C-alpha cells in the first residue's frame, strides 16, 4: 500500500528542456443538474473554465467528462486541470446516486456528506497526479479577483495538506477578471485585501498575476507571455526541478513495463500484418510507415491509460490517508 508521501528536495530531478508542466488547481465548479448529459455541458462549468480560456483557449469547449485531462496549451505548456468541490455539495456531483460504501455508513447526513466529498476530492487529485507524473513544474491556483472566500481559503489549505509545505515553492496565484480592477493596480488591490489572501500570497513567494478575461487576441498573447515568464522564474528559483510525487511515478512506470510485456506480441502481430500488406504491394511505403506509427501510438496510449487506471485506487487511498488527518478543518 502506498504510504501517501510526496517527494520534496531530496528526490527531485532535472527538467527536460523545452517542456514545462503546470498543474492547474481551481476552486469548485457548480455540480451538474441531473438532466444534463455528463461530459457535454461546457457552459454549466461556470466562470472557472471561462477564466482558464484566457490563458488556455483549449478549455473553452472543455466538457465535464474531460476534467483532469492534459491539454496542450500555448508556448509548449501542458495544462493539467482538476477541481476541489465545495463542502455544501451533498453528494458526488458526477454520480448522483450514493455509492454502496457510503450507504453502509451510519445514516448521519453530515458524516455521509463528508465521506462523499472526501472521496470525490481524492479521486480528482489522484487523476491529476497521474496525469502530471513525475510531477509539475508549477502549481497554479486560479482565483477570481475580489472573491477570496472562506471556501477558497480552504482550497489553499487543502493543497498544502495534500502536497505538503514544499508545494508552496511551486505555487503561482493566477487572478482572473483583471478588467474589474479598472484603474486600480493589482499591487494596490492586494495591499487592501483580506489578511488570509495576503498570507497565502506571501507563502508562495509573492508569485501572482492577473489576467483580463475579455482581452483581445494581442492582449491574450501578452498575458500568456507574462505567465510563461512567471512560471519560468518559478522553475529557475527551484533549481530547474520538478515537484515530485514520491512513489507514484515509480509505480506507474512499473505497471507500464508490465503491460508493455503483455501487449508486445499483440502489437507485433498488427505490425506484421501491415508489413505483409506492404510486401504484397497493397500499401505504399508512406502508408506503411503511417500505419505502423499509428499502431505504436495506439498501444502506448492504451498501456498508459491502463497503467493509470490500475494504480488509481492506490493513489486515492494514499491521498485520503493524508486528508483524513486534516479533514476536521473543513467540517462545519
Description:
The chain has nine helices and six strands. It has 332 residues and is α/β, with parallel strands linked by helices. The chain has a six-stranded mixed sheet, with helices on both faces. The two termini are 31 Å apart. Residues 49-252 form the AIG1-type G domain. InterPro entries: G_AIG1, GIMA/IAN/Toc, P-loop_NTPase. GO terms for molecular function: GTP binding. This is AIG1-type G domain-containing protein.
How many domain units? 2
Shape: extended
Average residue pLDDT: 64
CATH topology-level name of the largest domain: Rossmann fold
Sheet with the most strands? 6 strands, mixed
Number of strands: 6
Order of helices and strands: EHEEHHEHEHHEHHH
Strand order in space, largest sheet: 2-3-1-4-5-6
Which SSEs are present, and which pair or pack?
Layout: E1 20-26, H1 47-53, E2 70-72, E3 77-83, H2 100-103, H3 109-131, E4 138-144, H4 150-163, E5 171-176, H5 186-191, H6 195-203, E6 208-210, H7 217-237, H8 248-279, H9 285-324
Parallel strand pairs: 1-3, 1-4, 4-5, 5-6
Antiparallel strand pairs: 2-3
